[in-house]
From TrEMBL, chain A:
Any one GO CC term of the record: plasma membrane
Protein name listed in UniProt: Oligopeptide transport system ATP-binding protein
Cited InterPro entries: AAA+_ATPase (IPR003593), ABC_transp_ATP-bind (IPR050319), ABC_transporter-like_ATP-bd (IPR003439), ABC_transporter-like_CS (IPR017871), Oligopep_ABC_C (IPR013563), P-loop_NTPase (IPR027417)
Organism: Pediococcus ethanolidurans
Main location per the UniProt record: membrane
Membrane topology classification: Peripheral membrane protein
Automatic annotation (TrEMBL), chain B:
Name of the molecule in the record: Oligopeptide transport system ATP-binding protein
Keywords tagged on the record: ATP-binding, Cell membrane, Membrane, Nucleotide-binding, Transport
GO biological process terms on file: peptide transport
Pfam families in alphabetical order: ABC_tran, oligo_HPY
SMART domains registered for this protein in UniProt: AAA
Species of origin: Pediococcus ethanolidurans
């Protein structure tokens, strides 16, 4: 029924740490979602919800405990040989949260950006390498002559641009951006978000945008997934999840976002979420309540969610 | 609280330089503001705008390479800048306390939390260990730590980030300070925890009627917390007013830019308005309006002469040449016009908050809304 092309399919992904020991942590527990080509999928959750771990498992920085990650139809876990991994890394890149910690302070910007170009032998000669780096710097809104400087000569926003240039250097199709703007000032956040959107349009990129700032995620994403305690609780179109959340946890998360409006803030009622039902041992799975809008629910909760959706003026399936 | 118009803190013409290897950084340039009893003043600005340096000055905690070129910081009429270390130590933690940004690093990892909360009482008030511990326990309950009796002898690493920030708040408030400085107290926390901490701060403020200087770059937090707002840019205050005046009738193009670059509930898809460029280098601040280079509304005079404060209302001032009678009329961004429409409408209705302190009058202990904390 869906004609859009899936670039990434995550199926029942589990990422446990300290398996079998007393302190076993189920950081990601049975998470499934798809990402379509050319869209931005926002993954939201609090610290410890497993959103970063999910991102890391997808790009194979971690080896998943169980489940599958299909990228362009191919199981990422099946990539064993070095050549396969190299090819995979060219297609999928990552932008990190902390622009201060993620750039080697002892390398010049041109060497940081060109590292991928060097590893994958994408430059014909030195001149070509320099040209590619300078073009990339220009693409992300920096000057060509910035290439001979060191990271410490740049502000946080500029550093994040360098991080974006580095990710773009190998011409990937898919970029995982793990809280790329959380460490930046408000006015700079907007600059970086706009840059990412422009690049997406120019190059047809697909993003997995991981963040805890719901208002920014809503703004940049086409669809949003909400994680809590290692589980995905809700997936749906960004506007719908934000304006008409079905899961109570999502509702509490949305209600906690402060708005730059004093009148709104004075009348704000925060919804307090009680997580005990999550641990009642009932079997739960993702159920499509309204078109494209899924919520993790047990059989007997379905009616409640359908009712919530109807009350919000949404058209339920069935 | 209506008669609490007394200024507990007055900062006048404060100018601070930092001597560095690269040269003299003019971090604070001619900053003046005051703080009334029981109110919350929010100082908003980007990193490097001088908001943290301003509060460090109030605490008497400036680095060694800082030089106070000019100005006074009067706490209850006495100039903090002229005090000896001993006098400062008497005030710090007792009359003026601070909550720092990062709850992970602002607690002593080797000291039990009960002892850390009791410490200010032992030092400043000379309480016996027993009496201090008893009050520390009360405070721990007040900031909403469950099982306070059992947990008072735990170490910081046994608590989550939000709980640690509650402990930091308990330490800051245990002496019932007159001024609480909160420097980005929730920036390191998740939104749901942030909401809890902000609510807690508001409740405690009503209970012990402390004044708060709240430093943040998050305008959403400001909207919910502040009575008055000062917007800082490049070491200067560029606009100040009541929270309603700043959010519904902003005048400085920098304030416009800040409000405009945040997605709100109604922001549609499309391009987010960003402020182009970066803040100026304070080693060599520009001659005119420091925001001129990033300001699409800048006029010639903005590059030559620094704008003075123009009065918008009795409580609202902005340093922009756009308010000069001879300035041409400019159209603010759509989002700002929407806000100004709200202001006009509410001005007619008389529902604009003209700087009254948000306290609802529940200043005594043991009111009904007590339930949320202390359990």
């Amino acid at each position: 029924m869906d004609t859009r092309e899936k670039i990434l399919e995550v199926k029942h992904l589990k990422q446990y740490f300290n398996v079998g020991k007393k302190d076993e942590v189920r950081a990601v527990d049975d998470v499934s979602f798809d990402i379509y080509k050319g869209e931005t999928f926002g993954l939201v959750g609090e610290s410890g919800s497993g959103k970063t771990t999910t991102g890391r498992a997808i790009i194979r920085l971690l080896d998943p405990t169980d489940g599958q990650v299909l990228f362009n139809g191919r199981d990422v876990a099946s990539l064993k040989s070095k050549t396969d991994m190299m090819a995979f890394r060219r297609e999928m890149q990552m932008i990190f949260q902390d622009p201060y910690a993620s750039l080697n302070p002892r390398m010049k910007v041109k060497d940081i950006v060109a590292e991928g170009i060097d590893i994958h032998h994408l430059a014909k000669n030195d001149q070509d390498r320099t040209n590619q780096v300078e073009d990339l710097l220009e693409t992300v809104g920096l000057n060509r002559d910035h290439s001979s400087r060191y990271p410490n000569e740049f502000s946080g926003g500029q550093r994040q641009r360098i991080g974006i240039a580095r990710a773009l250097a190998v011409q990937p199709d898919f970029i995982i951006a793990d809280e790329p703007i959380s460490a930046l000032d408000v006015s700079i956040q907007a600059q970086v978000v706009n840059l990412m959107k422009e690049l997406q349009e120019q190059k047809g990129l697909t993003y997995l945008f991981i963040a805890h700032d719901l208002s920014m995620v809503k703004y940049i994403s086409d669809r949003i997934g909400v994680m809590h305690y290692g589980k995905l609780l809700e997936i749906g179109p960004a506007e719908e999840v934000y304006n008409h959340p079905l899961h109570l946890y999502t509702e509490s998360l949305v209600s906690a976002v402060p708005q730059p409006d004093p009148e709104f803030e004075r009348n704000r009622r925060q919804v307090v979420y009680d997580s005990t039902p999550e641990f009642d041992g009932k079997k739960r799975q993702m159920v499509e309540i309204t078109p494209q809008h899924f919520v993790r629910a047990s059989e007997d909760e379905l009616d409640t969610y359908r009712k919530r959706a109807t009350e919000a003026g949404l058209k339920t399936l069935i | 609280m209506e008669n609490a118009e007394e200024n507990i803190l007055e900062v006048k013409d404060l100018t601070i330089d930092f001597h560095t290897y690269a040269g003299t950084v003019k971090a604070i340039r001619d900053v003046s503001f005051h703080l009334k009893k029981g109110e919350t003043l929010a100082i908003v600005g980007e990193s490097g705008s001088g908001k943290t340096v301003t509060t460090k000055t109030v605490m008497g905690l400036l680095a060694n390479n800082a030089e106070v070129v000019e100005g006074t910081v009067k706490f209850r009429g006495k100039d903090i800048l002229k005090m000896t270390q001993k006098q400062l130590e008497d005030i710090r933690g007792k009359d003026i306390a601070e909550i720092f940004q990062d709850p992970m690093t602002s607690l002593d990892p080797t000291m039990r939390i009960g002892k850390q909360i009791a410490e200010p009482l032992r030092i400043h008030k000379g309480y016996s260990r027993e009496k201090a511990n008893k009050q520390a326990l009360e405070m721990l309950k007040l900031v909403g730590i469950t099982n306070a009796e059992e947990r008072i002898n735990d170490y910081p690493h046994q608590f989550s980030g939000g709980m640690r920030q509650r402990i930091v708040i308990a330490i800051a408030l245990v002496c019932y300070p007159e001024i609480l400085i909160a420097d980005e107290p929730t920036t390191a926390l998740d939104v749901t925890i942030q909401a809890q901490i902000l609510d807690l701060m508001k409740e405690l403020q009503e209970k012990i009627s402390t004044s708060i200087i709240f430093i943040t770059h998050d305008l959403g937090v400001v909207a919910g917390m502040a009575d008055r707002v000062a917007v800082m840019y490049a070491g200067k205050i560029v606009e100040y007013g009541t929270v309603d005046e700043i959010f519904y009738n902003p005048q400085h193009p920098y304030t416009w830019g800040l409000l405009n670059s945040m997605p709100t509930l109604d922001t549609a898809k499309g391009k987010l308005e960003s402020i182009p460029g970066t803040p100026p280098d304070l080693l060599d601040p520009p001659a005119g309006d420091p925001f001129a280079a990033r300001n699409p509304y800048a006029m010639k005079i903005d590059e030559q002469k620094e704008p003075p404060f123009f009065k918008v209302s009795d409580t609202h001032y902005a340093a922009t040449w756009l308010l000069h009678p001879d300035a041409p009329h400019v159209e603010p961004p759509v989002e700002i016009k929407r806000r100004q429409e709200v202001y006009k409408k509410r001005l007619q209705e008389g529902t604009i908050n003209q700087g009254h302190i948000h306290s609802t009058g529940n200043t005594s202990f043991g009111t009904d809304d007590d339930d949320a904390i202390g359990e």
